[in-house]
Amino acid sequence: MAFAPGVRHSGMGRQPVWLLAVVLLLSGAMVTRLAWLQLLHGAENRQRADENRIRLMPRNPIRGRLLDRQGRVLATSRLTYNLYVQPGEVSDEAWPALRDRLSALLGLPPDQLDGQRRAGANSEGFRIQLAEGLRPDQVLRFREQSSSLPGAEVDVDVLRSYPHGRLGAHALGYTSGITEEEYARLRDQGYRIRDRVGRSGLEKVYETHLRGEWGGQQVEVNAAGQVQRVLGEKPARAGKDLRLTLDLPLQQAAEKALDGVARGAIVAMDPNTGAIRAMASRPAFDPNIFSPAPSISQWAALNSPEAPLLNRALQGFPPASTFKIVTSLAALESDRYGPTSTELTTASYCRAGLCYRDHVSMGQLGFPMALALSSNSFYYRAGINIGADPIFKTARKLGFGARTGVELGAEESEGLLGDKAWKKEVLGEPWTDVDTITASIGQGAVLVTPLQMARMYAAVANGGWLVTPHLVERKPQRVWIGFQPDSIRTLRQGLRLAVQQGTARVLNQPGLPPAAGKTGTAEDPPRPVHAWFGGYAPAENADLVVVAFGENTGGFGGTVAAPMAQAVFATWFQAGRTEGSRPRS
Question: Rounded distance, CA 155 to CA 466, Å?
């Protein structure tokens, strides 16, 4: 189209105007956007840029060790290498390619990597563990190819290690990974999503003491995620070691002694201080399976009816004849009996229309011989003569019906003293002479723990002091009970006679010092009977109390429990002869 010379076209005249308007509009939008980014949100965007450029590499703290009384290691830590993926750096579209490369490089099944990625997905964007316990050759191959595996990383982890396996597992406890709920609650206390926490035993009780403090390294990375330089580093602070009262050789002897029973417990303790030298429970478990986690079959076994996680040293069971010490003290401290008093023993004792048999029928016997021979008819009569109230009062003085004060209090049963008030409140029934008869020999509604039992025998051995059992070295704590010296002396005579002439003669062994103790066989209908032994040695200056318990063994205290205790005593005193004088703590 042609225009006449000298004639201006109206459309061409307006073109520079709208072009200028468009330019001004776009420039204004750009200026507005820049102002919004730099002025209004500048600090926030600078932080985001730094986060993309600067990365924090956390460093695990080394958990404190658990040591026996001589400094021998019972629990420590070991290093392991794990494979992780950073979910924010690997999209769903990019994942298959990365997965296949990792599978080929490290020899890991692709479906395993897929499953771990799905299971570890989290809204917070924390890295996901794909594989654990990588071999050194796998780690080396990954390091060589890491620059071409964006979003994947291999990092070191610290796991708990128990070099002696299941030995002392119930006392030591175990650790496992922190849960999301725990992390939300504990993150302000310095915990991280990769933390491991104590779940039971001393690992749980002394979590704060053992755990240490996380450290880390702040590094600058490029667009490919490769480290360019280190900006700063905070070393991880290791947890503190914990010195225990346990004695490793004695703990090993106690564990071996329990091999003869399916379920049971042994407690060995210093009667003067309450320091626990051995605490074993059967069935046991290997705490190493929790590092990093038990398999499905292992978890099923841990939750079986046999309850291997249960510390039977802290659970209540009927004590039977080992409880006759309580009835003896109650009688000797009453106005009815004294150290030289006697009571009738017969083959049968009848009361309230019921008759009870006794294997001892020797006429009049004093307390020492009645205790040594474990005459039931003697204690039936003594219990009826003094009444139930003094028996339960004495039991409470000796620590029954309450926790002992050991560090594992959260796992400890108080036991049961089913006295008159308990029967009325729980069963809605009045007390009868039959209840007094059964309570006098440690049956009926009476449950005690092996640790409580050890505490009672310690009080007899040390002359009347109630000690506080403890697993961690500390200043001993004990309380004077207030029994008459003649009462304690009479009991000690009876417990010595039980080993010399009575039901605990198995402890008369060459190489052992003179020992004192009492056996017990507790009914648990309709299940087989329990086997008990409680005692100490040397008889005149006790250095060690041992309580052995076999749950539903069907055997007697003298044939099942006393031999277990004898093996523990043998280890302790034979070691004492080779190591020199044994320190008290």
Answer: 51
Tokens standing for residue 193? 């999503």
pLDDT value, residue 585: 38
Classify residue 317 by its DSSP letter: B
Identify whether 167 is part of a domain.
yes
Residue 63 and residue 210 in contact, taking contact as beta carbons nearer than 8 Å: yes
CA–CA gap between residue 465 and residue 481 (Å, rounded) = 6
Per-residue pLDDT tens digits for 24-57: 777 766 766 665 556 555 555 555 444 456 666 6
Q: Annotate 292-309 with DSSP letters as a single string.
A: S---HHHHHHHTSTT-TT
Distances in whole angstroms, Cα of residue 211 to Cα of each of 45, 157, 207, 237, 347: 36, 14, 6, 9, 61
Number of domains in the chain: 2
Neighbours of 7 (CB within 10 A): 6
364 in the same domain as 437: yes
198 lies in the same domain as 81? yes
- Ranges of beta strands (E only) in 252-346 are 264-269, 276-282, 342-345
Encoded tokens for 65: 């060790």
- Residue 17 in any domain: the answer is no
Contact partners, residue 224, CB within 8 Å, separation at least 6: 147, 150
Largest CA distance in the chain: 153
Q: How far apart, in whole angstroms, are the C-alpha atoms of residue 330 and residue 339? A: 12
Which residue in this structure is represented by tokens 């052992």? Answer: 512
**Whether 232 and 255 share a structural domain:** no
Cα 190 to the chain's mean position, in Å?
A: 23
How far is it, in rounded angstroms, from Cα 214 to Cα 234?
Answer: 9
pTM of the full predicted structure? 0.83
Confidence category of residue 555, pLDDT binned at 50, 70, 90: very high
